[in-house]
Amino acid sequence: MLGLGIIGWIIIGGLAGWIASKFMGTDDKQGIPLNILVGVVGGLIGGFLLTLVGVDVGSGGWFFSFLTCLFGAVILLWAVNKIRS
Length: 85
Prior knowledge:
The structure is a single chain. It is built from three helices and no strands. It is mainly α. The protein is globular. The termini are far apart. Belongs to the UPF0410 family.
């Protein structure tokens, strides 16, 4: 995902964060900046976890990067919800 550049991170992260927040029911509590942050951090989390199980996340392209961000964002929102409750 490093090859996408900062604009790619923001676009993919924002979209993944928004979809993850819809899926997890937290969209009404988040705005666009927080959705972007959740998606980008989710990409880091998802990339780290997938690397641990042997998946090559560097050569997956845009769609795989989006799925990685979405996967990580859902995990991040789940963990935040568990900590809050």
